[in-house]
Amino acid sequence: MGAAIPTHDVVIAGGGMAGTSLALALSQLGLDVAVIEAISRSANDQPSYDDRTLVLNQASLRILTRLDVVDDSLTRCPIRSIRVTRAGGFGHVHLNAADHDVDAFGSVVVARELGNRLLANMAAADGITEYCPERLETFETDEEQVRARLTSGQKLTARLLVAADGTQSSIRQAAGMASRLHDYRQSAMIFNVLSDAPSGDTAHERFTAQGPLAFLPQPEGRYGVVWIDQTEAIDEAMDWSDDHLLQRLTQRAGPGFNGFSKPGERARYPLKLLRTEAPIGQRVVAIGNAANTLHPVSAQGFNLGLRDVAGLVDVLREANDPGAPVWMARYVQARKQDQADTVRYTDTLARVFTNPNPLFRLGTGLGLSAHALLPGLKNRLVRSAMGFRTPVSSLARPEQVNG
Ligand SMILES: Cc1cc2nc3c(=O)[nH]c(=O)nc-3n(C[C@H](O)[C@H](O)[C@H](O)COP(=O)(O)OP(=O)(O)OC[C@H]3O[C@@H](n4cnc5c(N)ncnc54)[C@H](O)[C@@H]3O)c2cc1C
Known about the structure:
By secondary structure, the chain is of the alpha+beta class.
């Protein structure tokens, strides 16, 4: 007789930031969860937990606090003001957290540090089994369950399969979810740099005709730089000498910066948009990048993925059979507005400022000025920056104080 096939409530394919966050949240509900991750945790090419700097908004920080991964050292770089400018044009926006009665809009965290905490908590949590390095190779579903097979031949059964396997998700495709993929033909180059002007707690986003450039405050006067341009231009920039890089950065950064030194290592990412309107199939749901992948302008990707996590947890909180069609449908219903709005917002920002039509660019300049002048628009920008989009999940709501 063969060994018994392990049975879990939920199998999560993909142990990136979305998959591990979901595993922690589901274990808090008392569910038995399996996480399957293809790439060894110690491998240098682990794609999720690298040196990229991530802006996490207040809603995300609340969710991660509930998962016990946030402490003062993780959030040592708060963003208390945001400056948005446009090269060669009028119109700018300056947002101050204090004007909106909050201490900070969010914090800049390094993906590797966040990843280490998520993994440590997962190892210590009850009810989570990790299969790594293992790839979920094939699966079948019926009305009752999911049967999955891993690369090693290991079989698993569950009542729900979550695709958290990133933009190229083979599970999303095998489950027949309709999605749209757009190649921006742009790439992001990221690196760290020391600024002659102290980085403080201001994040800068500058829109140029070639693409956006973001400066995210880091400890000891450094900034995490996200430099976006056509893919061929980034390929070239990856080979520039450090001196040339610093000279070009000073030109592109515009007024407000005196100069830069000590650039760190560069990494590049090709940029794509993936949109899945109904990220469900029979006993399968896709979250994070596997469902919707965004352009990094305005730093929304993982923030949106975490709202997927929190939204799914709210739905499954009541479910006696996770994966039953009623819960899948409720998840889509609960998440569709936020997903559609966030994808539209980032896609519009990614396209408008590089549009060659001068009238269009005049319009965006006016748009920025309008944001600065009209409180309603400014407040919308702030709500979006903070991540509190309705319906606000229970993990993102303020803690109830009794007494
Ligand atoms: C330059 C840049 C800057 C960014 N800045 C921000 C920011 O400031 N704020 C923000 O919120 N977001 C930001 N993002 C977006 C953020 O990085 C992503 O949203 C996030 O990393 C997606 O996580 P994920 O877990 O959904 O997917 P992934 O990180 O792609 O993880 C998928 C995982 O699945 C595994 N896998 C794949 N197939 C299988 C399989 N068959 N079986 C098992 N495992 C499998 C992979 O090995 C991988 O570990 C940025 C992105 C870029 C590129």
